[in-house]
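Section 3.1 - Work completed
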Amino acid sequence: MPTLVLTLVGTDRAGLVAAVAEVIDAHGGNWEHSELAELAGAFAGVVQVSAPEGGVDDLRAALAALPGLVTVSVPAQGGGAARDTTSRPLSFTVLGNDHPGIVHEISAALGSHGVSIDRMTTQTRDAAMAGGRLFEATVSAVVPPTVEVADVIADLERIAAELQVEVAARD
């Protein structure tokens, strides 16, 4: 069965996930993995689906016909490069007063080392005692075998000092 990745964006409403799941099921597909969220009244999600051979076009058309979704895309299979098996994981958190540019600086530092972000979760929340907003991120990344993890962490710590946030690497 071909593996597809669906991206879903639309106005959040009750029953939206059920409608997508119903279409996938009706076309013989299998919902395998997903990341779904409500963000400021919008629904956003990425779903990995296996679909029967020869049924991809019908599934795509049925998903595109769902009301209220801004986009549904099904990228071509085999789109990514294979990951080197000697790559190493790097996980870290970022916490500090919220201000523009934190994600840009952190992601640019990772990109300059050829580090690929596998998963990143961010949020802002009210600071409990001091007032203002806190920015928090949890990042899981992959460091290529030609790059020293310690060099990446040192760069993140340098940027953290400049941004006045805390970066803590995790095992």
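Second construct:
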Amino acid sequence: MKDTLRLRENTDFKKIYAKGVSLANRYLVLFYMNKEQQYNRVGFIASKKVGKSVVRNRARRLMKESFRIYSSQVKKGYDLIFIARANIKDATYKDVEKAMVHILKKSKLLK
């Protein structure tokens, strides 16, 4: 993920929630906003509704790995937030990867 930075500031998250576009599928919710930069910024969230800390960390790891594989194919210049839904705790890696590809294609961010 050379051209990808992490979203960390609460104000950045709030801007994307307020002004961005959202899409969802069974395992993930995607908020994204065009920033017209030369790089992407990404945030991964798993709330307490997903489960205890072990389950939430697993969900974030699955999302990060799925995004890492396709990060070179994602259009540049966007802020992305991936949010894990409660169903992700029963999902396998392949399920999350398919959901990631589906939501990126649906948003037309995948080249």
